[in-house]
Each structure stands twice: as C-alpha cells, then as structure tokens.
Amino acid sequence: MSTAFESRYASSPNEVKQMDTAALRHAFLIPQVFTADHIHWVHTHYDRYLTGGAMPVKGPVALENIDLLKADYFLERRELGMINVGGDGIVEVDGEKFELSFKEALYIGKGKQQVIFHSKDAQHPAKFYLNSTPAHHTYPTRKVARSEAEVVTLGTLETSNHRTINKLLVNSVLETCQLQMGMTELQPGSVWNTMPAHTHDRRMEVYFYFEVPEGQSVCHFMGEPQETRHIWMQNEQAVISPPWSVHSGAGTSNYTFIWGMAGENLDYGDMDHCKINELR
C-alpha cells in the first residue's frame, strides 16, 4: 500500500494556551507533505478535512481508500482538490486524463472511483498538493489553469504585504460542495500574509507554504487574537488552522502559499477582522 495516514483531534483555545512548542507543532504542523511514490494524508477533526501530497517518481501513484472513511472508495462521499507545485504531471480520473503544469489546479467531484497520478519526467516529478472534504453532491471534474483564476492584488510594499491572490477552486470560478483552494504569491520585498489578520468561525483552513528559498523560513501565527502563538515552518510544510484561530505569517524572504478551506459556507469574504494594533 502506497498510502500513509494519520489523524489529529481538534483542540480548544484553552488547550492551546497550555501547549509548549513541541505540543503545538505536534497538533497543527504537517512537517512532511511529499514522499516519493506515496500519498501521505493528515486528517483533522476540524470539518473532517484531509490534507496530503502525491509525488509519483518511479511510476504512477493511485488514490487509495483509507479505513477512516468507512466507504467503498475514497471519493464515495468526498470531493478532492489539488494544485501541482512540481514538474508537469497527469491526473487520470476514471480514465479521463488531465494535464497539470506548475501551479495549475484540478477539482474532482464526489463519486469518481479511480484517480491515478503520473509525472511526465521522473527527474522533475509532479507534486500534487491535495485537499479533500466531505461532499453531499456531485459537481463536474474540472481543471483550472492559472489564466482562469480570479486574481486579486492586495497590500503594499510599504507595509511588507504586497501580494497576489489567485482564487482557483472557489465558487466564483466553479461549483464545489464546501472545498475552496487558492494560492497567494508574495512579491519581492514583502513577507507578511493575511495581514491584517482575521478569523472565520464558520470555516477552518489549512496553509501550505512553498517557494521558500533555501536557508529561509516562515513564522506562522495562530491562536485567538488576544492569545497568539507561533510555529516556525520550512519549505513545503503545511499547518492546520482552527476556525477560532488567526492564520497569518511572516517570512525571512518572500514565498508562496496555498490556502484551503471548508466549513458551512462558500463566502470568501466571511471574515472577522482583527486590528493589527490589538493583536496580543
């Protein structure tokens, strides 16, 4: 079996206040997303979100079922989104092939039974960053190229948060049940993401940081606005953000990150903003 799996229980704000560095990292950090010729899944009880990575090198890697789902196949009651952060790849969905280049996305709707991941060049393997959520309805499988994304530019160089937001798998681009995914690129000279910070108690989120230059890091901030904590992160690592938590970061260089969300609405603007000078 080429699938590894672990599950994380949800933590309350009161629990998180008592955590030391090791406990905080154990609860929220996903230190390794990609392993050659395997799929590594991390399940969180926040909205039953699954985060993983598929990296086919020696040959194709198939999406396998996991016991947690108690289903006949992985997507029997789930939807799946992905963004390729590696070399050119192909995703085969019930026999239909979708080519994904760097930073292109694919949505796969509920009910698809066979998903197989391929790399076009083993020397430059594809890296499919995967997010999956429960689904109640079947929507069409669809590739979203970067040219099809809804693009928003925010921030300024003066406040170190000039960034481009690429909304890829969101309801303004295509229909999903609850999964939303996009990618934010920090411009050279800027390091802050999601600042001013916010929470959204109706949705949880997972961040995946990549294009972090060698020797550089990102400090990810989480916790209640008046009781923040931080987790130092390296290239191609992910972090779970509870609905009650802020999710923001600052790097020692500019970088890119993928955000994925799930919850009880698809309203991208549903945010409870936190004033910068009131964070603690």
TrEMBL record:
InterPro entries named among the record's database cross-references: KduI, KduI/IolB_isomerase, KduI_N, RmlC-like_jellyroll, RmlC_Cupin_sf
Gene3D superfamilies: Jelly Rolls, pectin degrading enzyme 5-keto 4- deoxyuronate isomerase, domain 1
Record-linked HAMAP family: KduI
Residues spanning the signal sequence: none
Function: Catalyzes the isomerization of 5-dehydro-4-deoxy-D-glucuronate to 3-deoxy-D-glycero-2,5-hexodiulosonate.
SUPFAM superfamilies, per the entry: RmlC-like cupins (SSF51182)
Catalytic activity: 5-dehydro-4-deoxy-D-glucuronate = 3-deoxy-D-glycero-2,5-hexodiulosonate
Cofactor: Zn(2+)
Domain of life: Bacteria
Protein's recorded name: 4-deoxy-L-threo-5-hexosulose-uronate ketol-isomerase
Organism whose genome encodes this protein: Chitinophaga nivalis
Pathway of action: Glycan metabolism; pectin degradation; 2-dehydro-3-deoxy-D-gluconate from pectin: step 4/5
GO MF annotation: an example: 4-deoxy-L-threo-5-hexosulose-uronate ketol-isomerase activity
Cofactor: how bound: Binds 1 zinc ion per subunit.
EC number(s) reported in the record: 5.3.1.17
Record's keyword annotation contains Metal-binding: yes
Family: Belongs to the KduI family.
Binding site for Zn(2+): 198, 200, 205, 247
